Amino acid sequence: MVWPAMKPALILNGEALSGHGDLERELSTVGVEVVFRDINEITVDIGPAGVRVRETVEGRDLGDFGLVHVLAFQRPTTALLNAVVDYAAAKGVPTCNVEGIGAPTKLFRYVRLANRGLSIPSTVYLPPRLLAGSYPDLAARLDLPFVLKSMTGSAGRMTSLVSNEDAFVERLRDTEHTRGLLAQELVPPDGSYFLLVLGGQVSVVLRYDSVDMDDVLATSGWEEARLVDPHEVDPAAQQAALHAAAALEYDIAGVHLVRHWTTGQWCLLDVSPNPPITSGRHAVDKVNAYSTYLKKRLSHVDQADDCQPSGVLAHDPTDSVK
Predict the structure, then answer these.
(1) Same domain for 99 and 26
(2) Structural domains of the chain, count
(3) pTM, 2 dp
């Protein structure tokens, strides 16, 4: 019997199967090719042309496979799964054994946003074994300086500028990076905004006026930000924030946007499901907006779905609820 040609299946963390010669021979007789890869052989590259998720052994794109099956879930599998699954869905690749697994890390959010056509800085994820020797490639890809940030956790946690190889090596030495680090293009900022999106509306807008690296690194905690009327904000910025919250299916979101100094394009630096409503400056305004949102939701409770969107698996467990 001649079977039609088909794409190979990618089995992640499939060591338990890869050693069974009988299985491979049986699959071969029916024209099925299986590729076994470890989760630490997966890279993610997000740039102006979109997202690419590849396996590092042969450099094949996940979109070239006919199925992605996750057989086991050792770290950092669960931290990467949502990003892998979202990319597979965008490429029309079925997945197996991934439903309900994973947390929406920064990497997942960046992949989802880029897959929806929103603008984010170029971002690279490399497994820890490849990260240590990656400085020359990252410097060429992202230019200098670039930003190094944790894949999980809040915006200001483990976020720093890297301007030379010594600083890069020192950061890796001083940091527990086995949970994942992201290297990201530094967007030269012309103003920075925090938009609180509640129920599909921009409810509160804070502007960080100083043109400083704090605009991008978000280490200031927005203590110097000033409250601005949402109607005075560029409609393109508001639309970007609303589209980002909708893409991630967050009914409540804190969106950090910067405008590129030279291109004028709005770039998304972070979209958090746990925005700082009760902390920082202008807490009263944020709490009032949140109270109005809750009143509106509760008055239409029979028409409203649960606030946990079905498309998001779980909140990032390392994010602090403020």
Answers:
(1) yes
(2) 3
(3) 0.86
